[in-house]
């Protein structure tokens, strides 16, 4: 059977008031979560405003979109000296004597 025919058959079922109630709850939940995500995105981009130069620069790397760029900056920051300190052998899992 073709896809359209299968869709028509699938939609031919009985939808009760209970189903409508549950669907309404699910859609409201999805809307609520979507609103929360939008608020989080807004807050993230507000925090990134002070690092706009670095944020735009990192997004020039192929494969780095806005979400990935924001994640990288959130994880490692924008200070290259700070990053080099965090990549010492001890931090990478090695054992450095005297530390």
Task: Explain the layout of strands and helices.
Layout: H1 3-11, H2 17-48, H3 52-58, H4 66-76, H5 80-86
Helix pairs in contact: 3-4
- The radius of gyration is 24 Å
Large-scale geometry: elongated
Count of separate DSSP helical elements: 5
Give the helices and strands as they follow along the chain. HHHHH
Supply the helix-strand structural class: mainly alpha
The helical percent reads: 55-70%
Assembly status = single chain
User: Got a strand count?
Assistant: 0
Major sheet description: none
Mean pLDDT: 83
Can you tell me the residue ranges where pLDDT is under 50 for at least 5 consecutive residues? none
Note the beta-strand portion: under 5%
Explained architecture:
The longest helix is centred in the first third of the chain and has 32 residues, at 17-48. The protein has 99 residues and is mostly helical. The protein contains 5 helices and no strands. It is 67% helix and 0% strand. Helix 3 crosses helix 4. It has one domain.
Features of this protein?
99 residues
What's this entry about, in short?
By secondary structure, this protein is mainly α.
